[in-house]
Specification:
Blueprint lengths: L1 H16 L11 E5 L4 E4 L5 E5 L2 H12 L5 H4 L2 E6 L5 H12 L7 E3 L14 E7 L2 E8 L2 H7 L2
Parallel strand pairs: 3-4, 4-5
Antiparallel strand pairs: 1-2, 1-5, 3-6, 6-7
Length: 151
């Protein structure tokens, strides 16, 4: 009984402590892309773009489709999409094949470890990283906002 009580108190603190916040150091972590290739995110990254919904994914796609194939790489940026809201069958049959048509790399979150990234409804989250440390977090909802961010 006491063990359950202690865990119920500590578990939320452990989960919420893992959110990336301003001044947090980026520790290395790995995710697979739409082609099942593993990528490691490290302190050399300067921008992390994260989407949690289909609409924000499509907005980022509209923006990136108008850029060169190496835009993310040239900007030291990564694009991460949390696809945990889709069922496994939908993900495998439709989502992943659709994402493979994109000309750039999308790192994918398949499980609920997305707690690392902050989320706002109908917005993409953009982390600005300097010297391996989060120095700004923005929430965007339009292609124009994304264009302004990168200029």
């Amino acid at each position: 009984m006491i063990k359950e009580l202690i865990l119920s108190i500590l578990f939320p603190a452990i989960i919420f402590a893992s959110n990336l916040k301003i001044n947090d150091k980026i520790s290395n972590f790995s995710l697979t892309d739409q082609f099942d290739k593993i990528h490691t995110i490290n302190s050399g990254i300067s921008t992390i773009i994260v989407t949690f919904q289909k609409d924000t994914l499509e907005m980022i796609n509209d923006f990136l489709s108008s850029k060169s194939e190496h835009f993310l790489e040239d900007k030291h940026a990564v694009f991460i999409s949390n696809i945990t809201s889709s069922s496994t069958i939908i993900t495998r049959m439709f989502t992943i094949p659709h994402l493979r048509d994109y000309k750039y790399t999308i790192l994918l979150i398949y499980d609920d470890n997305s707690i690392k990234f902050l989320k706002k409804e109908n917005k993409a989250t953009i982390y600005s990283i300097f010297n391996g440390q989060v120095n700004d977090i923005k929430y965007i909802s339009s292609k124009n906002e994304l264009e302004k961010f990168f200029h």
